[in-house]
Every structure is written in C-alpha cells, then in structure tokens.
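Here's what a typical entry looks like (UDP-N-acetylmuramoylalanine--D-glutamate ligase):
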Amino acid sequence: MKLLNDYKNKKVLVLGLGKSGYAAAKLLQSMGAIVTVNDRGDLSTNEHAKDLKASGVHVVDGGHPLDLIDQSVALMIKNPGIPYTNPLIVKAEEIGVPVVTEVEIAGRLSEAPFIGITGSNGKTTTTMLIGEMMKGSNFKPIVAGNIGTALTSVVQKATNQNVIVAELSSFQLLGTRQFHPHVAVVLNIFDHHLDYHGTVEKYAAAKARITKNQTSEDALVFNADSERVLRFIADQSNATKVPFSLKGRVENGAYVADGTIYYRDEPILKCEEMGLPGEHNLMNALAAVAAAGVYGVPAKYIADVLRSFKGVRHRLEYVDIIQGRTVYNDSKATNIIATSKALHAFPGKSIVLLAGGLDRGNTFDALIPDLKKAPIKAVLLFGQTQKKLLDACQKAAIPVIKEVANVEEAVPEAFALSKPGDVILLSPACASWDQYKSFEQRGDIFIEEVNKFR
C-alpha cells in the first residue's frame, strides 16, 4: 500500500457503516485521519461500531445531524447506496467538501493495478472468471469490490505483484474522481437503478467513470454488440479498445465464430465445452477472455477455466439433478433482464419457474415475450409481486400458474408439477427484501428445501 500523508490530521466523515464504511474508517484512521462515522441506524449492538469506538473513532448513529459537516471536513466517504439527496451529502457539496466512495480511496492507495468490471448484468460471473483466469499467469489476483469484500480492506495487503479484480457498481463509480483501472470491462447498459440515477444517460455516465482517467496505455474491454456501451462509453474513451462480440470477428478482441471462442484470431475453445449454460454467460466469458488476454494469460489456461467454472453462488447456480430434475438457483436474478436471460439458458428443456419478491412499482410486461418463448411448463409465484407476475404469466398463456406463500412452499409444488428431464429454476426477477434478508438467504433456503427431495 502506498503510504500517503494526504489524510494525516485531516477530518474525514464516513457516511454509512457497512462493510466498506468500516474498512474505510479503519484504513484512514491508521493513516492519521481524524475519523467520524455516521449511520442513521441504531449501532448500539453493532460489533464494527464497538470496535471503531474502542480505537478512538467518533461514531454518531440514529440520524444524520447536519453539524457533522462544515468546511473543516476534508473529505466525505459515502456508502454507495446512500442517495445524493441525503441532507449531509447535499450540504457537503454546497460547501465544497469532496464526496467519494471507498473505490476512490482504494485506487489512490493501491500499489496493485486494477481490473475493473461493470455493467447492468453479469458483473459477478465475469469478475470471478477473470480472477480464476489470472491465476494462470504470474500475477496474484485479489477479487474484491461489489462482489462482497471492501476494496479499502484489500489494498492494505496488495503489492505490485498483485492485480485487484474489482466488481464495480454504478453507485460505487459515481463517487470516483481519479480512479484509474489499467483494464476496464463494460458488459452492458440496461434500464437499471433509474430510481437512483434518474435517467439512463446519468446511469451510463456513472458507468463511464470506469474509463474516464484511462489513457492509451490502458485497455477498455467493451461489448461491441451494445449500442449503448458504444455510444455512452467506448466512443468517449481514450483507452486502447478491446471489443468482444457474439456476432462475429472483431479486431483486437474476443469473439465467437463457427461455434468457437477466439481471442485475437486464436481459437480458445468450442462454445459447447463451456461449463456455464446460456448465451449471456457466453458473453460474460468473452469479456473475461479479452481481459485475461490483455494481461497475456495463456490460452490453454483460459480454456481450462471456461470448461471447469460452474458459476457463482446464486447466479444461475447448478444445484444438482434430483429425482431426475435439473435444479438451478438463480436467486441473484433480482430484475427482469436477469430472469429473461435465465429463461433462455435451457433450450429444449421444459422449465418450472419460481418467481416473485419485492415490489418496486414496475410491471412485468417486458418479461412476457420471454415467458412465451421459453418452454415453461408451470410457474410458481410468491411475494409482493405475485399478482403483477400472475398478470404477465396469464398474458403469456403459461399453462399452469400457482400462487404460493414463499420459496419454502414453492419447492414441493415444483417437484409435483415437473417430471424427470425438466428444469426447476428459481429466478425471481425481483429483490428479496419483502420476505428474506438477502437474495443469498432466499437462495440458501431454496437449496435446503430442494435437498429434502434427494
């Protein structure tokens, strides 16, 4: 880690005590900053809060007092999910206090170069693939970021012999200023998080920050099949362009031709040999191939990873074949696009779909064409969106539609409505918070219930 004096004896306010807030507070205090942590929740029993207080960090909970911000504060580090309409952030920006996310701090302090991965869908799978592929070179990858490990915790141990492979959300990127990955990967841009960003243009602008500070000595790996990625990001970038495409040969990049994955015209492996199902995972694989290729990872090792990699927990995760049914846990499919992709991952197989969850105000009409096209035998619906999904399924003429209380009740119904050779798929198209603490808990419960039928 670079030892900078930038923060010594400077007042820093950390807004939001999550994983990233805790890691950032610890790191900045170790560098001599005078740190205050603020969270609107009750932190009286929070172990991280107790640890910070014991080490001398000032912790304020139960609200956001405006007097925490004045011109004596040198920096605010915000939790990515806190909107910029928060009164403390509004005041900070009004009086000129810089507001960043921990990604910015990690980028300034890291000795290790970054591979940054962003996009509306596929980030986690692509990040994990790149991490596995990088093990096949002389680099020592550290996988972190939006995938679950705070970047400010990993930069403390990273050296110039490492590469940090970082999953980055639009929320995280919006709070960057000088962040400069050596390789930036942009997968796609869909109409996501518009309740936060306001418009797709602003959402894309947040994503574009991943390449804002890149030069021709850096690489932008981008989806050449996405008009939005081209228009909003690739066309504006100063980096060396490394495209990937499912539609055929691209110059200096990764592509599919005649059922084979290529990188810079070198064959890597047949598409049918991939360990992950679905066209969307083929696109993720191309992005990973291109990013690893930039670093010179041998083609043989890239191919070995693509054959052996079976997926990320809760992202179209293969569970097992149970009573002849092939079971997949796609609990991380918290939006329509993710579920749409999952429905097309099993050509020729009849699907029993489990879906539903938190109501964010949207309809599911956009899912109707996919519901019609996929060979769906039955759908089991639960959660707040049950009635909205019921309407979409009826319009799609799904032959069997059942409403159930939750995932626990859906699983036995799924076995009853399916037969050997069918696919049982949990792909909710919704967030989990109406009934479960997280999509991880929802997926774990699904697997527990499924295992009762072994």
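The radius of gyration is 23 Å.

More examples are in the samples folder.
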